[in-house]
Each structure stands twice: as structure tokens, then as C-alpha cells.
Task: structure prediction
Amino acid sequence: MFFLMFVNGLYAQKIDVKEYENKAKAYAILSAQYSKDAYFYSKKSYYSTLVGDIKQYADTGLVAAQIAIEYADSALLVAFDTCEYAKTIILDAKMYQKKGVLSFEQIRKSNDIDVIYELSKTSLYVMGNALADAYRASMFLDGKEVTAISIKESKREITRLESDEFSYMTIKELYGKRLVEIDEELILLYAAAEKSEGKELEEINNAIIQLKIEEKKSFEKMKNSEDRLISVKTDLSEEMLKIVNKDIFTTDKKGFYSENIPVPVNVKTPKGLVYKVQIGFFKSQLPPEHFDGIFPISSQKIDKVYYRYVAGNFAKYEEVKAAKIAISEKGYSDSFIVAYIDGEKVSMSEALEMEKATK
Result:
């Protein structure tokens, strides 16, 4: 009954193919939606410490991944001939879905908790990639020829590091909540033990032992996810400063930079025309919390004494102007726009002339 309930849940809240004139797009979206289900049960499997529960989650994840593959095949079958670019992305999604199926099948066969843990982590990663690729493919399954320009102008793809950041943040949060629950359960059990004796006391003590084991494992998993999150955020901080795209910039990424993830210093500016917002010019490095959610940022050391803090990488003046307004609203009223060409700081007139010439 447990398994059937989960399988039935897979069919809820999915799109209706009949509502889509472009069936390839609909099938790609469905492939993404079932990949999302498989990703969800991968997380459930990864977070759990009970082998029986993990295997049940793997059963349900396996069904979702298999259905996702069927819809990926359907999308490939009916896609327009002009959608070669989308087809390559769907094939990538299908490759990850197959890896997910293999991981789920191996989880079902294994009884080694350490092996199961690694397999759950693998399924979490590959189904997350399948989800992202299937949705991305659906964007290009429109019956139109996809050119280099249309790809460049499409919405920026979420990077693997951003997916990892979300996953590890979620893992850390869930294990933190479970540790709080364990503490509360232990307090109640210790209180009950003081009033019990005989077989009842023995059962309570056994429950305490099991909770202590779970507590240790949960703490280790939370610590591992925290260490991995720091690593992912550090890599993400550097990666985002290499990409020129307005969608990367935000003023609401609070708590990202910290003592463990410092603001990058003297980062190389990407080639070509790049606009940034200069937040300020200071005599010393500022604490990360000073920037109140602005991301991405970097500092440039000037004359071995001063630090210039800048935010974002923008290709167009209108984009950086909107970012400058957002930063000003955060309290940095003295912020202003700066421009670079091939890493060299240039005047705004030079930058605007180059932008106009490349339109």
C-alpha cells in the first residue's frame, strides 16, 4: 500500500498533453516533471537512515525515472527536424535518467548502508541534471530553427553548481531539523526512563541507543553537507564572475559570503565589453555581511592599500543601470557604473560606442 500510494502520487499535478499543440514540448516537460519526482525520491532516500525506507523510496524513484525516459523518447520521436539543438539536450537528459535508473536498481539490491548512501547521492545528482536538461530542451522544442543568436539571447541556464548549492543547503537544513527532533525525543525518553523499570525500561533504553546512533549519523551527514556546501559556494563565487549575464546578478543572496566563503579578490574580468557597478572604495577589506545580499561581487586591491568593490558582469548599459538602481536602494547611494574592454577599464563613452557598434 505504501508503494502504491507513492506511485499514484507520481501522476498528480502533471501537464495535459492535449493542451499543447507542440507535442514534443509537452513530452519534454513531462520528462522533466517525472525527473523531478525521481529527484525528490532521491533526496528522500539520501536523507533517510533506515534501509527499508530507502529501498521504498528507490522503488518509487525508479518508476518515475523510467517514465521520464519514455517521455524523453516520445519528445525525440515527434520533435521537428529543425530542433536538432533541443534533441541533443533531451539525449543528455535521457543519459542522466538512465544513470538514475541504474542507481535506483542497485539501491534495491544492496544491503550495505555505506554503498546505499553513495548510490543515493549519485541518483540525487544525475536526476537533478536530468530535470534541468529536460526543462531546458522544452524551451527549444518550438518548431523553429535554433540559431547561435537565439541560443545566446535565451534565458541563462542554471549551472550545475547552482543546483548543487540548493541541494546541499536543503540537505543541511533537513539534517539540522532532524537533530533538533532527536534532542526533543531523547529528553522525553530520559524522563520516561526515570519513571520506568523492567521490560518497559529496557525498551526505552533500546530506543535511546537507536536515537543516539541516528543522531551520530545525522550529524556526520550534516557536517559533510556543510563542508560540501562551502566548497560548492566557493566554486560558484568564482564561476559567476566569469559569466557576463544580467540574470546572475541579485541583491537578495543573503548569507552567501562569509568567513569561510570570502569575497574574491583581484578576479580577472571576462573578455569583451563588460559593465560593472562599483559599490565603493575602502581603505580595508569589509566583512562579507556588509554587502547585504548583493551577488556576485569581487574586490580589487589598489596601490596595496585600497579595495574597490564591484558587483556583477553586464553586457548592456541598460542592464547595468537597473543593477545600479537596485544597489542604490540597498543603501549604496554613491555606487556608480564602470566599464571594461578586454579587462582594461575604459571610459563610459568608449564602452557605449562599442556597444552601439556591436548591435
Observations:
- The beta strands are 273-282, 297-302, 306-314, 336-341, 344-346.
